[in-house]
Structure formats: structure tokens, C-alpha cells
Specification:
Blueprint lengths: L3 E2 L13 H4 L10 H4 L5 H10 L17 E6 L11 H7 L3 E5 L6 E7 L13 H18 L3 E7 L3 E8 L2 H12 L9 H11 L5 E6 L8 H10 L3 E8 L1 H5 L6 E5 L5 E4 L1 H25 L3 E6 L4 H12 L7
Parallel strand pairs: 4-5, 4-7, 7-8, 8-11
Antiparallel strand pairs: 1-9, 2-3, 5-6, 9-10
Helix pairs in contact: 3-5, 5-6, 7-8
């Protein structure tokens, strides 16, 4: 897959499928990424998305009988009174409930690629902004239903890390971490997944949001190794529309997004070969990941967030995959 992502210089006339005109269509959903990008903080964007999605990641909570203590959470109506920690009450004058490892229905990691190539956006939302809103929406859904969520943001190394928790306060930390994330530097997916595997010995759901552009490694093989550790892995392969359709016509300067390379070319001379390479890359990636029982979803960054989530949740509601 070419690592040089096309960037249209001033004055270039690329056909971008009338995207500007599309935004004027009557009844355009707020969940359109270009529209939602103009909304305020990430927390508000995630809420807008989640409020339009009625399904959960699974049908009902399953409370186990483990006696392994995990963490406290502030008491709320409906919690088991027998799990109130009276020592904590004596110390803080507030009711806290002990949670045990198997009382959390699901442990999920939101893993976000924040390398410099994720800053690309032809005329819409940059890939990283799309990943942040989608990741925040997934975290919001998970915490709302009592699941535990952790975050790993990576580039050349681990940039941000939050262990899995299920409290409402932890959701605020997750959203704040994603909000402050910027696209910088090269990619090292392998190091990020090794870091995650060391800190997640128990089986968990891993939601990876990335453009899979890592010329120095084999990202598919690295993801398959994570699945071999029995984690339930879903890959949201994010691509900009221009990366798929290569709409450039005039002489264009291609800039390396993660290095200093510059390549002046005539797009019409390389368009067919570029599209062939991209098509082969997508098909090989899909085939290799699905063969390993990894949930692969090619996601174009002009797709409404609610459509992506509803499709994901619909598939999650089917019989569970082998682990």
C-alpha cells in the first residue's frame, strides 16, 4: 500500500464527487461526519451518536459469582446492598459498592492509531477525528451498560494508556484522553499491540481503529497474533474517500505523511496502477483477517457514525464467535 498519501496542492482541480453539494441536501443527518465535526466537545458528539443507536453490544448483563475483588463504584439505586463497603463508608461518608471481576460483563480496549497519516482528510473529516468520535461513541455505549473500557493511543510508541474501568468518572477520563489526541509521528502497531497484550492477560474485546499504513511492518500478522491470544478483535480500517478513488487530475505533489518525502507526479499516469494496488491491499487484508476470525470492517470516513455502529452492533448480536 503506498505510504505517500495524496494531498491536493493549491490550484489542483480534483473531482471529489460533489461533496460540498451533498452537505446541502435537505434533511442531512447530524450524524454525518462533516456536520458532526462542527458540534462542540467530543463528549457531546459521542452522545449525539449514541442517542441515535438503540442497540447494545450484547442483550443483557451477566453477573458472575466470582469473589475476586476488582474495584469500587459509587452506590446507585438497584445495586446489591450486600456489596456495600462499610469501611469505605466510614472513611468517605459515601456509599461505595464492591465490584468483582466477573460482574463486569465485558472488558474492552479502544485502540486508536494516532500516527501522522491519520491526519489526512481530503475535504471531509480527518481520519483521526473520525476515529476519536467513533471510539468515544463505542466507549459511551460500553460504560452505559456497565462494561469496562480501557484506551490505548499509539503512534511510534504508546502515547496514552488508561486501564479498563467501568465507572462514570472513568468515561470522562476516556473522552478527555481522546479529545486531546493529535496525529503525530510514524506508526508502530506491533509495539502497541505487544504493550496491550502484556497488560491484558485476560481475554478481552479489542476495537482497533487504524488506517493500517505501516510500511516497516506487517500489521495484519501483528493483529492475527493478538487474536491468537484469544482476544476478540474487531478492526475498523479507516480510509478517506480520496485514498480509495484517487480523484486527482492535474499535476499533483504527493507528500509523505510520516516522513519528509515529496513526489511530484501526473495523477492520470498512475491512477490505474494505484487503484489496483489499493484494491489488492484491501482484499488481501480482509481475507487474511477474516480467515483468523477477526471482525474486519472497511470504513470510509464519510460514512455516518450511526450507520457504522448499527452495523457493528447488529453483527455483535449474532451468536458469539469461538474464543
Amino acid at each position: 500500500m503506498p505510504k505517500d498519501i495524496p494531498k491536493k496542492p493549491d490550484g489542483a482541480n480534483g473531482d471529489h464527487r460533489n461533496q460540498e453539494g451533498d452537505t446541502k441536501k435537505e434533511g442531512l443527518s447530524l450524524l454525518d461526519p462533516r456536520v458532526l465535526a462542527r458540534v462542540g466537545p467530543l463528549q457531546l458528539k459521542a452522545r449525539q451518536v449514541v442517542e441515535g443507536v438503540l442497540s447494545g453490544l450484547h442483550k443483557s448483563p451477566h453477573h458472575g459469582q466470582s469473589i475476586e475483588f476488582a474495584e469500587h463504584k459509587e452506590y446507585s439505586p438497584g445495586d446489591e446492598i450486600r456489596h456495600i463497603d462499610w469501611k469505605a463508608y466510614g472513611k468517605f461518608d459515601k456509599y461505595y459498592v464492591k465490584q468483582f471481576e466477573h460482574e463486569t460483563n465485558l472488558r474492552a480496549w479502544i485502540v486508536i492509531d494516532a500516527s501522522r497519516s491519520m491526519a489526512y482528510g481530503s475535504e471531509g473529516v480527518p481520519k483521526l477525528e473520525y476515529a476519536k468520535v467513533l471510539g468515544a461513541s463505542l466507549a459511551y455505549l460500553l460504560v452505559q451498560q456497565g462494561d469496562a473500557v480501557g484506551v490505548l493511543v499509539y503512534g511510534a510508541g504508546t502515547r496514552s494508556f488508561l486501564p479498563v474501568r467501568s465507572s462514570g468518572g472513568h468515561l470522562h477520563e476516556v473522552l478527555s484522553t481522546l479529545e486531546s489526541t493529535k496525529a503525530e509521528g510514524p506508526t508502530d502497531l506491533g509495539a502497541a499491540l505487544d504493550f496491550l497484550a502484556e497488560r491484558s492477560p485476560r481475554r478481552a474485546m479489542v476495537l482497533l481503529l487504524t488506517d493500517l499504513l505501516d510500511p516497516e511492518a506487517q500489521p495484519v500478522a501483528q493483529i492475527r497474533r493478538l487474536r491468537a491470544r484469544r482476544h476478540d478483535v474487531s478492526v475498523f480500517h479507516l480510509m478517506d474517500r480520496a485514498e480509495l478513488e484517487f480523484p486527482f487530475e492535474d499535476p499533483t505533489l504527493f507528500l509523505g505523511m510520516e516522513d519528509e518525502r515529496q513526489l511530484p507526479v501526473h495523477p492520470l499516469e498512475i491512477r490505474v496502477s494505484y487503484l489496483n494496488v489499493v484494491g489488492s491491499f484491501l482484499e488481501e487484508t480482509r481475507a487474511s483477517l477474516t480467515e483468523s476470525d477477526i471482525d474486519y470492517r472497511h470504513t470510509v470516513t464519510d460514512t455516518p457514525y450511526d450507520r457504522v455502529l448499527i452495523d457493528f452492533l447488529g453483527r455483535r448480536s449474532r451468536p458469539a464467535r469461538s474464543v
